[in-house]
Amino acid sequence: MTMMFYAIMDSDSKLPSEDNVPSFFSNDDRNTGKPHDKKNDEINLSKPSSETSQRRTNLTVHWPSLGIGAGIAIACIFCGVLLVNMIDTESTQILDEITISEITATEKPTIASFYGNASPILGDSNAPFTLVEFGDYQCTFCKKFFHETEESIVTNYVKTGKVKMLFKDFIVVDEDSVNAANAAHCANDQKMFWQYHSTLYNNWDGEGTGWASSEQLHQFASTLGLDMNKFSECMSQSKWKDLVLSSHADGRALGVDATPTFFIIDENNEAIKITGAQHYDVFQRTFDSLLEK
Predict the structure, then answer these.
(1) pLDDT tens string 238-284
(2) Do residues 80 and 88 touch, judged by C-beta distance below 8 A?
(3) Is there a single domain that holds both residue 148 and residue 133?
(4) Each residue's pLDDT tens digit, 161-182
(5) 220 lies in which domain range?
């Protein structure tokens, strides 16, 4: 039985508007609606007879009845708006309840969209469940998740062998985010991905404020004791930029449009999508429910 879960934050770091999307991303596919069928809109009206016209000239307006009718009409419109909103909300929730089997039916993403172009695994590679985070190092809510939730997940589920974690890049801010992601993978060349990952979030100082400049990224590497010659060469070549952009494309294929977005994948390759920097108890309930099966 596939368990599905939907959770959303009131406000997340969204992708830039179409006018502000960085040049290194391609445009989204657009869905176009079908033209409206005019046949259903045509109404054939017959001309009123002279008798009917004469009768109308003798009619007077009954204002109390008109007021009651208007009130009924307004009430119907209000109920209709509420019904439409209820339907829209339900549709949104259904769209965000994602399983891998449903996603792969679109023939766009595959299981590699979750596991490929990613960080090294944090935890036991044989853990039954995988937590995949799509994030941006400059993202405000990604930083919030890192400081308020991630440590508890690592302590209670990763270190106990129940869950393994992967981080995938999904760029929503600017070129500094791409450079920071590339730097983390350069650190991975020296087996220091997760240490550098933590250093970035521990030094977070806003979105687009310059804290993730090339100079700062080199300073973080030096502080961690990395071989600076190897790190500098990796950075100057933008060695892992293509991987970073491929990870972003994976997120697009999976319907990611905000950071952070998480997928919890079980042993049957079924996934639960959680959107936003949710509190620890959201992840705890989800993991515990899966572990009880």
Answers:
(1) 999 999 999 999 999 999 999 999 999 998 899 999 999 999 999 99
(2) no
(3) yes
(4) 999 999 999 999 999 999 999 9
(5) 103-291
